[in-house]
Amino acid sequence: MWSIVIYVLITLFATTIGAISGMGGGVIMKPSFDLVGEYNASEIAIVTSCSVFTMSLVSVALKFLGKKKAGEEKPDYLIILFMALGSIVGGYVGNLVFSLITQNASDAVVKITQNCVLITVMIFIIIYMNMAEKPKSLKLKSKIVAVVAGLFLGVISSFLGIGGGPMNVAVIIFLFGYGMKTASICSLAIIIFSQATKIITMTITGGFGIFNVPILIFVLIASVVGAFIGRFITKKVSDKGAKICFLCAQIIIVGLCIYNIVNYSLQV
C-alpha cells in the first residue's frame, strides 16, 4: 500500500513539473523510481512511458482547447510535426537498443548506464540554459534538421525511458529560437508521438505482462491530475518562471542520478 502512495506522489510531482517545463516528467520519475528500487529497469520503462504519454496528451489538449492570448508566440507546426516524425523512428530504435542491453546485462548495470547518460545530458542542458538571460539560438526553419533532431532525441529518450522533455526543450530553443513556454508545449507534443510508438511496441512484444497493472492505473490517474495542475500553474507564470522551474528540476535530477550511480555500483 505504501509503495503505491510513494509512486503516486512521485508521479504527481514529476508530471506537474513536466507539464510546466515541457520535460514530460519521465526524467524525474526514472531516477526517482530507481531510488525506490522496487521495480527493475524494464518495469520502470513501462510505467514512465505510459505516465508521460498520458500527461503530455492531456496538457496539449488543455493548451489547444484553452483561450489564446493576444500576441502569444506561435510555433511552426510543420517543424514540430517533422521533429515528431523523427522521434517516432528514434523511439523505435531506442527501444530496440534498450531491449538488447537488458537482455545482455544485469539490472544494476542497465540502471548505472542510464543514470550516467542522463546526468551527462542534464549537465550540458544546465550549462546551455544558463549561458545567458536568453540562450543563443540558430533560428532555423529546415524540415530536414527537424527530422534529424527528432530522430536523435527519440533514440536517447526512449533508451533512457524519460520521454525526452529536457532535451526536447533545449534543442527546440537552440535550433528554432522559441521562447521557454512555447518550446515546452512543443516538447510535450513531440513526446506524445515518441511515447505512443514506444507503448505500441511494448504492447506488441508483450511487455505489459510483466507489470503490476493496478499500480499503473493509480500512476496514470496521478499523471492526469499532474497535467491539470501543471497547466493551471503555466498560465500564471512567465517564461522566466518556467525557466527557473526547468533548471531547478535539472539540479534535482542530477542529485538523484549521482545517488543512483553510487548505490547501484555497490550492487555490481
Description:
This protein is an all-alpha fold. It has one domain (2-265). The chain is built from ten helices and no strands. The model has no long low-confidence stretch (mean pLDDT 82).
Give a quick account of the main beta sheet: strands, pairing sense, barrel closure.
none
Uncertain stretches of 5 or more adjacent residues:
none
Strand content: under 5%
Q: How far is the N terminus from the C terminus?
A: 30 Å
Helix/strand order, N-terminal first? HHHHHHHHHH
List keywords for this structure.
268 residues; mainly alpha; 79% helix; 0% strand
Outline:
With 268 residues, the protein is mainly α. The chain has one domain (2-265).
List the helices and strands and how they pair.
Blueprint: H1 2-21, H2 26-36, H3 41-65, H4 77-104, H5 107-129, H6 143-160, H7 165-176, H8 180-204, H9 213-236, H10 239-265
Helix pairs in contact: 1-2, 1-3, 1-9, 1-10, 2-3, 2-10, 3-8, 3-9, 4-6, 4-8, 5-10, 6-7, 7-8
